[in-house]
Amino acid sequence: MADILNVQVNEFMAKVIARNPNESEFHQAVQEVVESLMPFIEDNPKYKYGKILERMVEPERVISFRVPWVDDNGEIHVNRGYRIEMSSAIGPYKGGLRFHATVNLGILKFLAFEQVFKNSLTTLPMGGGKGGSDFDPKGKSDNEVMRFCQSFMTELSRHIGPNTDVPAGDIGVGGREIGYLFGQYKKLRNEFTGVLTGKAIEWGGSLIRPEATGYGAVYFAEEMLKTRNEGIKGKTTVISGSGNVAQYAAEKIIELGGKVVSFSDSSGYIYDKDGINSEKLQWVMDLKNIRRGRIKEYADKFGAQYVEGKRPWGIKCEIALPCATQNEINEEEAKELVKNGCFVVSEGANMPSTPEAVEVYLASRILFGPGKAANAGGVAVSGLEMTQNSMRLPWTRKEVDDRLHQIMTCIHETCVKFGKDSSGFINYVNGANIGGFIKVADSMLAQGIV
Ligand code: NDP
Ligand code: 2IT
């Protein structure tokens, strides 16, 4: 049986690769899902005859556009903008925008594909999408970022809307960029609507949205730990990245009594063996969100170790929270983590572990929460922001945080339900893929061949 399934996976992937050449990250994301789903689909042939997988790997719509803008010296630049509208089976397209020099079609398609499953897991009515640009915000002035955002939104505004497609932030897109994008949309449409999430609290945002992805990844880690009668308290935690997700993951770990010892950025990592406390974290937030500096400055300021050009996975820890980018933990690094006693990996980033690294976690039977489950808190609170916008009624911090906590617990339960194998081991990869798939697939069957 396993052999037949392998052949089916390989045949399916050969077609995906031929139809979508040069999109390695998209192939990687699809392969993982198809490996999880093939046995389930064999047992439930309605999905096979409905060609659900074949339909899900083809975006409903791909939009690509020119983004011209003028820098502070009057020079003209041209970037490329995208929006991948992957699935509207269970709600409007929903997912972030990434501004980073590495952005290309394949990366955004992998992110949009993952988003479909993630959004389904949240229990909220959101389809999946993703967008962005190869624009690099590093070193740009606020005015340059504003002009870029305005140009980007001038085209994007034709394709989105509060009941059609609701973008949000991702790498390189935070509160500042959402503000400029929202302002331009409002001006073009003469409409004040919930067309973007991650807005500031004064103009339609939700409390806890900035915190949501990081907090959610820690809540998910807590749920995984509970299955072994353990908690966060006293555990050494290695975090990569130092942006939105990393900062709030650190805040929650510290609040729950864990010890955070690292942050990183694309230049290197810092290791603070004494632990990053709340005061040091505040300093990092100021460094990254206001002064927009490099993490190296932390080492100069607090006398910690700085390692240039490397990632932090060699540091001894019990918990690892990758919160930077895709494929940032490879097989050797995963082995190193496990060898040093790490037994919890909760992915704040999207697809930060390579397939070989995931193999290492599963073979070692550690607690591994894949991104589409563990980092779903961000989009979940985006969904709650949409609800509040529709009601025109803001909720309190506690109300939103309680709902976030509840949603993460529910996602964990779904993973257990569909991921527990006959030996009692919880394969969260299978659990998240199957648990996220069913609602989308059943909705597609109900809505006909569209
Ligand atoms: P930010 O832009 O706030 O921070 C990104 C961090 O990751 C920075 O420290 C950045 O360093 C580092 N980083 C980015 N690209 C690379 C790279 N190629 N190599 C090494 N380091 C890199 O983004 P977020 O914190 O929002 O996003 C982090 C991850 O979390 C992404 O994978 C994103 O898709 C995922 N995510 C985000 C959600 C959200 O709500 N924001 C929700 C769910 C998932 P540098 O400054 O040097 O670029
Ligand atoms: O990857 C993600 O889930 C996000 N970047 C957040 C998407 C959203 O719509 O809040």
Hetero groups: NADPH dihydro-nicotinamide-adenine-dinucleotide phosphate, (2Z)-2-iminopentanedioic acid
Average pLDDT: 98
Count of extended strands: 13
Task: List low-confidence stretches.
Answer: none
CATH superfamily of the largest domain: NAD(P)-binding Rossmann-like Domain
Q: Provide the helix percentage.
A: 40-55%
Tell me the domain tally: 3
Which sheet architecture does the biggest sheet show? Answer: 5 strands, mixed
Strand % is: 5-15%
Number of helices: 17
What CATH architecture of the largest domain do you see? 3-Layer(aba) Sandwich
The third-level CATH topology of the largest domain is: Rossmann fold
- Could you state the order of secondary-structure elements as H and E? HHHHEEEHEHEHHEHEEEHHEEHEHEHHHH
Approximate shape:
globular
Distance between the termini: 32 Å
Spatial sequence of strands, sheet with the most strands? 1-2-4-3-5
Instruction: Please report the first level of CATH classification, the CATH class of the largest domain.
Output: Alpha Beta
